[in-house]
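Worked example 2:
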Amino acid sequence: MKLRVLGCSGGIGARARTTSFLVDDDILIDAGTGVEDLSVDELARIDHVFLTHSHLDHILALPLLVDSVGALRAKPIVVHALPETIAALRQHIFNWVIWPDFTEIPHYDRPWMVFEPMTLGATVAVGERSIRSIPANHTVPAVGFHVFGATGSLVFSGDSWPTDEFWRVVNSIRDLRHLIIETAFSNKERDLAIVAKHLYPIELGEQLQRLRTAPQVLVTHLKPSDAETIAREIDAWAGRSQPRLLERGQVLEF
């Protein structure tokens, strides 16, 4: 199994793309601006989209994805998300005001997109791969994802302030190869990070001390306006865990 990093920035700018990961060639985890770098043929191969939460930097490309390739596909794109996330998408995005409702286009019986509610702790099997939703603690209902198959596991925290349940799940995964965890703000923005329920380097360092296995730790979601400072602080405060910064275009195998 392979995960290709399409986007892993906490904002936009030159060469910065927001969160989106492609698993093999048919599963998308979050739909940030990184999706825009895929070709039409690559977009058309995406059968499943798993969303961590409803914030714009994680769902921005979804409406354009469906619009761009819906007519090329023989079956609808399946969007898996918490019921609250689906409700937000229906109310605020696919509402015929911001964007058409592709669960009704071109016909109710033949839509280009369908929603599949996913409860916390549920596992969805896609061929020989499985995606399990795991606890997250954010300003809106949110989850992380445990992606696994016969050869190993990967965990993506999504956007999340610390939660005991997240570490309980992570530490129970004995074949964990990669842990992707967010840190959005620098230490000087600690108060903002707490309000926004994002990690900052001091808190990241404290949280990584709770890790009881030895995966490769990869840090995502740095705000591009302060990325160099955040990177230096991660090295200073979380360096004992040897985290690396996740990079756009990186491919993780597990």
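The mean pLDDT is 97. The helical segments are 40-44, 56-59, 62-69, 83-92, 164-171, 190-196, 201-208, 227-238.
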